[in-house]
Amino acid sequence: MAETRTLRDVIVYNELAGMVGYDQVSQNPVDIQAYTRGRAGWPPAKPDFVVWPGTVAEVSEIVKLANVLKFPVIPYCGGSGGGGMTTPLQDGTVILDTKRLNKVLDIDGTNLTCTAQTGIIGQELEWQLNAQGYTYAHLPQSQYCSGLGGFLASRSAGTLSTKYGKVEDMVLGMEVVLPTGGIMRTQAFPQSAAGPNLNRIFLGSEGMLGVITEATLAVHPMPEVRRNRGFMLPSMHAGFEAIRKVMRRGLRPASVRLSDEEETQRMYRLERTGAQLIMTWDGFEELVDLEERESVRIILEEGGEDLGHEVGERWWDQRYTMCYPTDSGEHSFVNLTLQGKAIGAVWDTAGSFTALEAVHAEMKKAVTRIKGTHFMAHFSHWYKTGGMMYPYIINKEISSPDNIPEMYYRLQRAAISAVLRVPGCTVNHHHGIGYRLGGFMKYEFSEAGHQAYQQIKRALDPNNIMNPGKQGLEWREQ
């Protein structure tokens, strides 16, 4: 144990150790540094303690202790999020890492459900399901380094969400340790009309309303066939029309990814005009044959050029290289940062088909007014009513590390203000809010709606110990 600083530190450390064991709580500087989140140019935000509970009962006891000693608790799972969701905002913070709650408790092939503890890494859950012939089809880009609890807390979306939905659409029941330490369990019904759906209160709450410790999800038999195919559309607008008509037709491609003209050329190094579209279908072979054939017909009618399966399969095989370098150490972000020092950020949004085209133009215009800024985007996670935009906003005007925070927030204000100017667009689709986007939540919910959310927080968490200060809600020193 590192040298303690105050009597309060001694008390908190030893009380936690008495609950979980001395080897499962730490204030060692190396452990603290591992859980310190921030970006270059920001002062590091450090927790005081890290604790690794091994049972739901231990989670409950830790939360009860936090209410007695009034220290803030931040639930942690994987830690891959980039919005500041797990960043401490005050001294005395305890990081509660759920990584030891990592078991698959049940796979029910008859009823197509899976129950798992939420500390499990996403790919590990998928592997265990695959071994029995199932998938939960939630395959985010971060799946090798992020976990089920984080997916639920941030309402995550995976690569195949156009067919299988976001993670919130998969949830049937949950176990949650409430901010007072009580343990709540919702039953895993297919559907119900017995009052409000309490699961929805905790989905997307980013650890502010409790610790999600277990979830029952809907799963699917592994698809017999999965096909990926590439197309070139004459313009981004033509791509939108093709996708709109595919979705309107009632087809259910598993994944649809449309790049704007800039991303088509820069990311994929295609020396031609137009917008690249990648579409994925999966299921049993006859269904895939039908959906692929009908989708191709619609895309060609919109002026699309069929690039074939090889282009689609190459995208599928390389879809993680943005996050995970290849054996050569090279990955796509090298191209995005334009071979030099740069600050890059993503502020994703979602909206109707017409709103998406408008917000693309509005955001591009807003951020490129800032000297040295480049903008490109792709559109994925589609619905019958619209889809999501994933922009890359890159600025090379970095004279020193000291001006990184100022540039980051200038770009953020420009990007999110553009979103707010387009009716029907959300300030975030699947990356979460944390503290960095918290100031915009009153516009997302309206003033009255945000006040209602604050009242829910106060009712469930009267001592404000659960991840205080995120999503624009009040935070105060304990």
Task: Label this structure with key terms.
Uridine Diphospho-n-acetylenolpyruvylglucosamine Reductase, domain 3; Uridine Diphospho-n-acetylenolpyruvylglucosamine Reductase, domain 2; alpha+beta; 478 residues; 4 domains; Alpha-Beta Plaits; 16 helices; 5-stranded antiparallel sheet; 8-stranded antiparallel sheet; globular
Number of strands: 19
**Anisotropy-based shape:** globular
Stretches with pLDDT under 50, minimum 5 residues: 323-331
Distance between the termini: 24 Å
Describe this structure as you would to a colleague.
The protein is α+β, with helices and mostly antiparallel strands. It folds into 4 domains: 7-97, Uridine Diphospho-n-acetylenolpyruvylglucosamine Reductase, domain 2, CATH 3.30.43.10; 104-221, Uridine Diphospho-n-acetylenolpyruvylglucosamine Reductase, domain 3 (2-Layer Sandwich); 226-317, 2-Layer Sandwich (Alpha-Beta Plaits), CATH 3.30.70; 337-421, GMP Synthetase, Chain A, domain 3, CATH 3.30.300.330. 34% of the residues lie in helices and 21% in strands. It contains 16 helices and 19 strands. A hairpin with a 4-residue loop joins strand 5 and strand 6 (113-117). Helix 1 packs antiparallel against helix 3, helix 8 packs across helix 10 and helix 13 (353-368) packs antiparallel against helix 14 (404-421). Mean pLDDT is 91; it is low at 323-331.
